[in-house]
Amino acid sequence: MVLQAIRYSRGSLQILDQLKLPHEEVYRDIWTVQDAWDAIHSMQVRGAPAIAIVAALSIAACVARCNKSGADPALLGPDMTGAGLISHNLQILLTSRPTAVNLADAVRKLEKVVWQVQQQPGSTDYSINEAYIQAAEQMLVDDIRDNENIGNHGADWILRHTGTVFPAGKLSVLTHCNTGSLATAGYGTALGVIRSLHSRGYVKRAYYTETRPYNQGSRLTGYELMHDNIPSQMITDSMAGALLGLKREAENINCIIVGADRVAANGDTANKIGTYALAILAKWHSVKFIVAAPRTTIDLNTASGQDITIEERRSHEVTTMRGPAVQRSKDGSLIVGGSVHEIAIAADHHGAWNPAFDVTCHALIDAIVTEKGVVEKDENGEFHFEKLFAD
Ligand code: MRU
């Protein structure tokens, strides 16, 4: 069964609530644009590509209902119609989370589509809505295809660059956060590369970090790796240095592969908090450090990582944890599955710093894998992305 984070059909959108995974599988209706904003802001849906697609499809579902039965109260901006109404709602959704650029890229492209149709003689609200729906639906289709290409390019590159160092034809990788089917329309970016390596029989073990504070690794990546029967093991974020420092062949990490929320024009990369520390560890241990992301994550208008806005979230996400109650059986083994609780894990519930992302300098990145191919630095240590956008 394919893991489906986004369920869409004309006029209807549902998301798998990622705050409840892996203990509960609950699909939520995204009926209004406000529902979409709330789901993105609260991180019921998260991951740069998934955020953009859910935002785009939430409006598509509303305008499809408009085209069927007149006005739809699920859109915000009741006195507006056509391109203006769609643009107004896109701009509202753009405020839901600031760091991932995929949403801004989708908004720009979708606004262009509707304004172009509006310029055509004889255009109506109906034809504008129809063009919007088709463009938003295409994003869902394109994302899966792009991720499969990222997976294949990334796997080829890793095999070429680590082939001489991994023993017995298998390699171990380390990843961070969740970049799989749950973070995208399907297959995933960094996790897509791991899927591609696994489908070719090359994965000895995929290690994944817990990814504090919201545990996208332990809750979501672990769930996806188990779902696909990929040999895997979780570590806490603070164990990565020790893992890379092991000299035992069994755990030898051949490369670290992560996703991205925004890649600046010079290759500096914003990704889940903790990525930067992993990149420094990779450099110290001479392990390849790879970023996998679609072209929609590359932002040529942002010169460097210093220009990226890093979202800071509320401290309670750091000072609390959610999960089902656990009981111990007589033999000491754990029985998980009681009702879900939120518990406090800190003395001070107000003072924690909670940046959702950090920036990894391009100097620490060996390659950036996109659906169009892999970009490496030139002899001066600089990335060039222009060729990726030539078509
Ligand atoms: O805060 P999140 O869970 O939305 O952060 C997600 C990440 O940092 C991912 O690595 C990134 O969005 C790439 S997902 C393909």
From TrEMBL:
Marked site: Transition state stabilizer: C177
GO process terms (BP): L-methionine salvage from methylthioadenosine
Name the UniProt record assigns to this protein: Methylthioribose-1-phosphate isomerase
Statement: the UniProt record of this protein carries the keyword tRNA processing: no
Principal location: cytoplasm
UniProt family annotation: Belongs to the eIF-2B alpha/beta/delta subunits family. MtnA subfamily.
Organism from which the protein derives: Lepraria neglecta
A Pfam family it matches: IF-2B
Organism placement in taxonomy: Eukaryota, Fungi, Dikarya, Ascomycota, Pezizomycotina
Highest taxon above the source species: Eukaryota
Catalysed reaction equations from the record: 5-(methylsulfanyl)-alpha-D-ribose 1-phosphate = 5-(methylsulfanyl)-D-ribulose 1-phosphate
Cellular component annotations (GO), alphabetically ordered: cytoplasm; nucleus
Keywords: Amino-acid biosynthesis, Cytoplasm, Isomerase, Methionine biosynthesis, Nucleus
Its biological purpose: Catalyzes the interconversion of methylthioribose-1-phosphate (MTR-1-P) into methylthioribulose-1-phosphate (MTRu-1-P).
